[in-house]
Design a protein that fits this description.
Blueprint lengths: L1 E13 L3 E3 L2 E3 L3 E3 L7 H13 L5 H4 L12 H14 L2 E11 L9 H12 L6 E6 L5 H4 L3 E12 L10
Parallel strand pairs: 5-6
Antiparallel strand pairs: 1-4, 1-7, 2-3, 5-7
Amino acid sequence: MRHGLGFDIHRLVPGRPFVLGGLTFDHPRGPSGHSDGDVLLHALVDALLGAAALGDIGDHFPDNDPKWKGTAGKVFVAKALALVAAKGLKPTQVDSTVFLELPKLGKRKPELAAALASLLGITKDRACVKAKTMEGLGAIGQGEAIAAQVLVVLEETTAPKARRKK
């Protein structure tokens, strides 16, 4: 088993769609960013890459490359999963926390968890999304930013060459 931890944070600005976990929320401001600013999926990508010892999202999808401008987080997740699979690994569990004041995620947390499970090809009972406010503290607490932290568990699908019996 391998574990990876990912984190992402984005400023919230007017005129951008509020995208989280690949879902769109009704909110007057959305995360700024070179791509879609989806902090949950960007943190998931970092967790996947980290668990496989493949670096981070910026190594594979740099924000100074016009190729990735406006790209949906789901695309990054799919590409990270392909890199993980090439190392003989697959996801088995994901646990995440989103830090924000508004919009309240309450009733949509199960939908977000189901979206993560679907992207990762795991069952819904192996995906969790939690939401925390910052009690009015800092940029997140003032409603100026959103952040996410994700823990992912990977398992080997094939024995690494060094461990295979001859």
